[in-house]
Amino acid sequence: MPGSGEKPKRRLFRLLRRGARDTTASAGRAAAEESALWASHQRASSAVRDTGEAAQRIASHVAKQRGVVDALADRARGVSARSADLSAGFARVKETFARLELVALNAGLEGARFGEGLGQALGLVSDEIRAQATRGSEACRELGVALGEIGSELSQVNSSLDRAREASAEVAEEAARVAGASADADRALSEIGERLEKTTGSDPATARAIADATEHARALVAALGALRGKAPQTIVVAALRPVLEPLLSLLEGEDEAER
Amino acid sequence: MSDERGGARPTELGGVVFRVGDELFFLPASIAMKVSPVPEIARVPGGPLELRGVALVGGVMIPVVDVLEDPWAEPGGAMLVCAVLGESVGLVGIDVLATGRFEAGDRPDEVRFGERTARTFDLASAIARVREGRWAV
């Protein structure tokens, strides 16, 4: 192993000087850029996957919503039909009251022919029946009007539900489009990843490991900087020796491989 | 109760009060026979406007006179069947308001109906208008 007799500090300086002279001096920057690129790629891939999953969830929810809207529309149509039946029923009841009113009018006319006594009694009964028939007829008319209003409201509800159904269909289409687009984007990102891997010779895991190692190295430098002037250098070097030896071995190993 | 057949004016008159447009009319119970729903009316070709047509009432074909004289208006409400000289005639275009005995009005041909007065309907004139109306045939 070259330089195995050197002191660790000198060996480290030698390696670092060579690294600085190396034509791939910009490799450090490039490695950082590469790492950032892979991180962005990972984030984009993750976002695209999330988008695709969200689009599928939206499509699923919209399908459920459409089912609910369809059920509501069926119910509204049923109630509307029932309301129409009731209106017809009220019309018949109203007609019956109108006939009853005519019966009362005829009873009053008969009473008028009888004169006082029986005629007066007949007249009173006639008036009472007529009053009640009129009230019943009026109540039927009001109920008919209320039912008509309910029918009108129901038709508005139906048209609103139709609009909601159309909107749901549009949302489902859009969700399918988004899912398709995110699948395309995912494929494109995979392709980009493959090409990036071929071009740089690295992969996301390596790039992440390099980024981690860089972070740790920065932390080590910062820690050493903090110790400057506070502890004698010999003590610091002695403390770092167990770490420096394997580090040097690793760096020299890679150095050899590069040669 | 006053005697309607006597010389003194009766205080009450029995019959029917109805409305034609905004006017109130009265027909005594001796003329007004019954109130019925407006039946199917068959138009008489060439008949005058006053004659709405003929209708089957109680198995008898009777003429139906439209007091509104509007051939295009649908006769709603009720028909008043009247007896005139032994014959029946139906009146439509009227709105029957009440039947029974009504307080006599200030004039002999009037009855009180609430705060208003109803004068006796001139049925003979209505029938005469039909007879004298312009027949196309």
Molecular structure report:
Helix content of chain A is 91%, strand content 0%. Chain A has 259 residues and is mainly α. In chain A, α1 crosses α5 (233-258), α2 packs antiparallel against α3 (118-200) and α2 crosses α4 (204-227). Chain A has 5 helices and no strands. The N and C termini of chain B lie far apart (51 Å). Chain B is mostly beta strands and 137 residues long. In chain B, the strands form 2 sheets. Chain B has a 5-stranded mixed beta sheet, with no helix packed on it. A 5-stranded mixed beta sheet of chain B has the order 3-6-7-5-4, covered by helices on one side. Chain B contains 1 helix and 10 strands, in the order ββββββββββα. Chain B has a single domain (12-132), classed as CheA-289, Domain 4 (OB fold (Dihydrolipoamide Acetyltransferase, E2P)).
The structure class of chain A reads mainly alpha
CATH top level label of chain A: Mainly Alpha
Q: Shape of chain A from CA axes?
A: rod-shaped
Count of structural domains of chain A: 1
Descriptive labels:
heterodimer, A: 259 residues, 91% helix, 0% strand, rod-shaped, B: mainly beta, five-stranded mixed β-sheet, 1 helix
Task: Compose a concise summary of this entry.
The complex is a heterodimer of chains A (259) and B (137). Chain A has 259 residues and is mainly alpha-helical.
SSE blueprint and pairings:
The complex is a heterodimer of chains A (259) and B (137).
Chain A: H1 8-21, H2 27-114, H3 118-200, H4 204-227, H5 233-258
Helix pairs in contact in A: 1-5, 2-3, 2-4
Chain B: E1 12-20, E2 23-28, E3 32-37, E4 51-57, E5 60-66, E6 78-84, E7 87-92, E8 95-103, E9 110-113, E10 116-120, H1 123-132
